[in-house]
Amino acid sequence: MYFEPTTKQLIKHRDYVKGQDGKYHMVDKDGRVLSGIQEWQGSYWYFDKDGVLITKRNYVKSQWGMWYLVGSDGRVQSGLQEWQGSLWYFDPTTYLLVKNKDITVDGVSYHADKDGRVTKNANQETGFDPSEINWTYELGAGEGDSRLAIPDYIILHEVGAESGAAANASYLKNNWATANTTFVVGDGGQVFCVSDPGYVSWGALDANPYAPVQIELGRTWNRAQFLQDYAKYIAVARYYSNYYGIPTTLDDGGVGTKGDKSHRWVSRNMSGDHQDPYGYFASWGISEDQLTHDINNGVDMNQLNSVVYSQRQ
Fold it and tell me: What sign has the CA pseudo-torsion 294, 300, 301, 302?
């Protein structure tokens, strides 16, 4: 029961009150302190078994046996929410976790899987479809790494040699024990798979276990081919970022900050001395800001055409 601290009188109307201990409670019309999910002024709030408003973000079981996400202010959450490193979607009407359903939030399409974990729908990315992949140089049985990668990073490389995509995919296939990456893009916008997406590949030292996809870009001196190769490279990166629920940001934050990462970021934050892909991109007029924009937003071919040099420097 709740008694008003000043008058000592029993509260006999539904109210949201502050106790002597500074904690907040909900009382009903009989003065009883309530627990569980409670409605108040158009929102729902969660009070623990002692009737104290929860002020820590948590996933809680209600008095009805159903589960809800509670925010740090005690309010029951709805819509797209982050919890324990994943995205989840809670129905705005019922506040319950949505499972096995496609949803759209702010114009972006998502899919909630059987557990309720949400990822962006990969098929909304234009410019790449997995049916395009060339499997000629895929690693065979007993080759490569059998571990599934933790989906934190998409790592961006360029091959670092004056050769194209197929030649480098062939090299990685034949020297997989030394180094291998997921894809090599080039030769006119082709996408060659070496190591299967989702698995650890060996292109970025300590970052390898955290990258389900690593992408190399083959080199060229032909401007028209570079435009094709670069656009496909960006499309592949964005596709798999969406597929694995990795933000399409470039080189943000330190270790553990999810996103697309250059090999240079890996060298600066984890291990190694590679600086790619920035040097090769600069030789064609692609700045770091341009690459960041394109990873985040996709390629506008008209805009790209206006910034790429007439010939490689």
Answer: negative
